[in-house]
Amino acid sequence: MRPLGKTDPADIEVHIPDRRLTIQWGDGHRSVYAFDLLRKECPCAVCREARLAVTDDPLRVVTSALKPGEVTVTGAEKVGYYALRFVWSDGHDTGIYSYDYLRAICPCEACRTC
Fold first, then answer.
1. CA distances (Å), origin 96, targets 17, 25, 79
2. What is the mean predicted confidence (pLDDT) over 30-35?
3. Exposure of 13 by Cβ count < 10 A (0-12 exposed, 13-18 middle, 19+ buried)?
4. Domains, the chain, ordered by start
5. Which of 81, 80, 86 is nearest to 16 (CA)?
6. Which of 30, 85, 92, 98 keeps 20 to 30 A from 47, CA to CA?
7. Neighbours of 42 (CB within 10 A)
8. How are strands ordered across the β-sheet holding 9-15?
9. Confidence of residue 53 (pLDDT cuts 50, 70, 90)
10. What is the pLDDT of residue 69?
11. In a 10 Å sphere around its CB, with 0-12 CB exposed, 13-18 middle and 19+ buried, how is residue 66 labelled?
12. Phi, psi torsion values for 95, nearest 5 degrees
């Protein structure tokens, strides 16, 4: 068995009451993601296109259809050995969050300043 790397999770906890995902990575780093951040950064094609549309037209006024805390995770599952998929309380469930992607969007101060 190969040693765990930077984007290999050693432990994953989806804590619905506290609305957070915690991942302990193979390199010892710990990431804590608020559900609101995960939903905002959903990697599915529809959500990604919506985010790109905002950057393509600087005059466009976009308001989020979702208010913070409005939706929550109702289920989560591993996708193979490379990702997680969440089911949201509004039925959205098409985002596949690869471990590489989750590590890249880690909200901790150390990762944001790298």
1. 22, 18, 8
2. 98
3. exposed
4. 9-112 (3.30.2020.30)
5. 86
6. 30
7. 19
8. 9-15, 20-25, 30-34
9. confident
10. 83
11. middle
12. -80, 125
